[in-house]
Amino acid sequence: MSTLVLALIAGAVIGLALGALGGGGSVLAVPALIYLLGFSPASATTASLIIVTATSATALYAHAREGAVSWRAGVLFAAAGIAPAFLAGAAAGHLPAQVLTGAFSAVAAVAAVRMLRPTGSEPPERVRPAKAVGAGAGLGAVTGFLGVGGGFLAVPALVSALGLRMKQAVGTSLLVITVNSLAALTTRTNAGGDLRWEVMAPFTGAAILGAWDGKRLATKITGETLQRVFAFVLLSVAAVMLIDVVV
Predict the structure, then answer these.
(1) 204 φ, ψ to 5°?
(2) What is the CA radius of gyration of the chain?
(3) pTM for the full predicted model
(4) What stretches in the chain show pLDDT beneath 50?
(5) Residue 190's CB: how many other CB atoms inside 10 A?
(6) Are 171 and 219 in contact (CB under 8 A)?
(7) Would you state the pLDDT for residue 203?
(8) How far is the C-alpha of 128 from the C-alpha of 73, rounded, in Å?
(9) Of 180, 199, 197, 216, which is closest to residue 59 (Cα–Cα)?
(10) CA 175 → CA 77, 102, 203, distances in Å?
(11) Residue 209: phi, psi to the nearest 5?
(12) Which of 22, 33, 228 is nearest to 114 (CA)?
């Protein structure tokens, strides 16, 4: 299968994840770029942030049109994460790739297990500023450290810590992903390596189109189903990355 076809398929799948689940894009993008498209780890993490930033901004627009974004919670989360994302991104450049990969798989697994826990009925929306700032700062640090958008952590945090409904959390997380990814990118301008734009361009285009389809899919699936799909995707990716570290 040609590189172009692989890029289009991978991009479409990642766009679906971001549009429907509000996260998971970078978690899928990084291994896809490395194992399917031959990017180096440094290039893959930088490229994934570029791809996910563009795709998340597109998906955010689609969710905002439907009123599925809690702007107050999103702004608090995003603002609190900017400085930690910048500082952690700078620190990550000095750590071995295996350490980052191991941390990546562990964080993804913890988030997946948390999403699989029964939550009962969806809680009413209630923004708690102190919790939003604390969780947002931690999320920003993870984004900068691991080179991911952070949606796979933002969604459960927005649901459990701030009381957002699942579908509201999905839309709001896209705002957080966009801002955190841009902040993390500022520390990676000189560490991206060969970004191979001839691969990234079709990848990003397919992801953007997939995000629109993902948004439509999200309107037809319950919040509980979205949580389970999200969790199993994260567990699968965590297992693959952990095996790579061990082997």
Answers:
(1) -65, -40
(2) 16
(3) 0.75
(4) 121, 124-125, 192
(5) 8
(6) no
(7) 92
(8) 8
(9) 216
(10) 9, 27, 21
(11) -65, -40
(12) 228
